Amino acid sequence: MVRLQVELQNMNDENQKLKEMLAQVSNNYSALQMHVVSIMQQQQQLQQQQNHRTDTAQLIQHHQMNNNKDQEVKHERQFLDLGPSTATVETTDDQVSNNSSSSEERTRSATPQNNNNNNIVQDVKYNNSTTTLKDGIPFDNQDHSSASYRDCKRVNRDESPESESQGWASNNNKVPKLNHPPSKPIEQSPDATMRKARVSVRARSEAPMITDGCQWRKYGQKMAKGNPCPRAYYRCTMAVGCPVRKQVQRCAEDRTILITTYEGNHIHPLPPAAMAMASTTTAAANMLLSGSMSSADGLMNPNLLARAILPCSSNMATISASAPFPTVTLDLTNNSNPLQMLRSQQTQFQVPLGQSQNFATPHNGFGQGLYNQSKFSGLQLSSAGAQDNHMQNVSSAAQLQAHQTHPQPSLADSVSAATAAITADPNFTAALAAAISSIIGNNGTNQNNNNINAAGSTANPISNPNNNNKMISNFPGN
DNA sequence: CGGTTTTGACCGGCGC
DNA sequence: GCGCCGGTCAAAACCG
């Protein structure tokens, strides 16, 4: 008996040591992960500085080629005199369009402008207004006040610690909050804005939900109008208080397509499986948000969008300005339904996400500052890793479309590389991340990461049709 | 028993 | 003001 007790004691001790070791390893891992992210961000910032200088020079050079000297001087002064204030920047026709209240008007006013000179000036202004350049360094913390003002209601309801405790976190009110930050992080205001912008991933999948490396808890399910398939609502449960939510719904026209829409910033380190995708979708969302920042009503400025339009017949990345929330859509289906594509063209601006040098040119109107800001902000908007172990046909499902009527070699190259990356890589998350990174020009993502593990999502599948506009029960036929 | 899912109720925005 | 609709809440049920 005594011997057994001693043995037990020894094992307990050993167990304790192992626990400590595990905790230590876990801590080291988290620290290392954060370190890697910060290093990547630093590198990206350095690159941004460099790119910004280059593109500013290019802009001015281009500008000089197309204007007489008087205009050059005038515009140059405009460029130099533009302050960070969004209020002063948003004048002229942008302001006019901001006054229009309906989304229809926004869409209508978002027609491409032919005046090249005007575009250049506006690009420059946009650059300044959206990135609030400091010594040529774009940074993300601009316009916080207006962001929180725009979304103060939402902030009060969803983001404040008080409402957090009585809101969705109230389910846990019996449980001591482990990870809840004692005070709101500085990024809360942009986070409020981030909660408005969304990243939507369309992918073919037989599985009811893509496995993206994060843990989700379902908090609702509803029938959405115009779609016989229910929409499921999930929130991230990887940390208490993480505001990230996602919606999962099957496409009405093609039910093999799963539409996953992410919204919000993770407030915790992401697992490797979600890391790459998060950074890339964040980049996409930040691009979108960069536009919305300068807009008074929180929607993307239609004129700014208009300048981003290229005559693409179809593409894999779209930005919707007419949707209730500005949304970046990453279409990873191999062939979109023609009907759907038509609708997409009617309701969405399709924005080719090319590489930086093309993205920053006046042809599409996005300034480099915007691009750079979006390229790698470090904010993790979404966990849109789309690893789907159930995907039967990963390579074909992920083939990217880039039918360009407008020649843009860099995008074609990107898409080609992305497609190759996906078809060559059995690991869908890595391939998808690489694909999106390639297309939006995010070079920071490791395209060779074939070792990403799929952390299983705990959320259950969404169920199938039922025609009441209320929560429904599981449909066995899914 | 703790975490997740289900699902009716509720809320706010929006159009009429 | 009213109804519709999307989104969320929260109690109960469920599950491992």
Can you describe this structure?
The structure is a single chain. The protein contains 18 helices and eight strands. With 478 residues, the chain is of the alpha+beta class. Among the domains are: 1-57; 192-289 and 304-332, N-terminal domain of TfIIb, CATH 2.20.25. Strands 2-3-4-5-1-7-6-8 form an eight-stranded mixed sheet. The longest helix has 65 residues, at 2-66. The protein starts with a helix and ends in a 38-residue tail after the last helix. Residues 62-195, 291-315, 336-431 and 434-478 have low confidence and may be disordered. It binds a DNA duplex (16 and 16 nucleotides) through residues 153, 157-158, 167-168, 170-172, 174-175, 217-222, 224-225, 231, 233, 237, 245, 247, 324, 458-460, 469-474. Residues 84-193, 381-412, 451-478 are annotated as: Disordered. Residues 1-35 form a coiled coil. Its main location: nucleus.
Rg result: 23 Å
Q: Estimate the global geometry from the Cα principal axes.
A: flat
Termini Cα gap: 57 Å
Topology order in helix (H) and strand (E) letters:
HHHHHHHHHHEEEEEHHEEHEHHHHH
CATH architectural category of the domain at 192-289 and 304-332: Single Sheet
For the record, what is the CATH homologous superfamily label of the domain at 192-289 and 304-332?
WRKY domain
Number of strands: 8
Mean pLDDT: 50
- Low-pLDDT windows of residues: 62-195, 291-315, 336-431, 434-478
Roughly what fraction of the amino acids lie in strands? 5-15%
CATH class wording of the domain at 192-289 and 304-332: Mainly Beta
Q: State the major sheet.
A: 8 strands, mixed
The CATH topology label of the domain at 192-289 and 304-332 is: N-terminal domain of TfIIb
Approximately how much helix is present in the residues? 40-55%
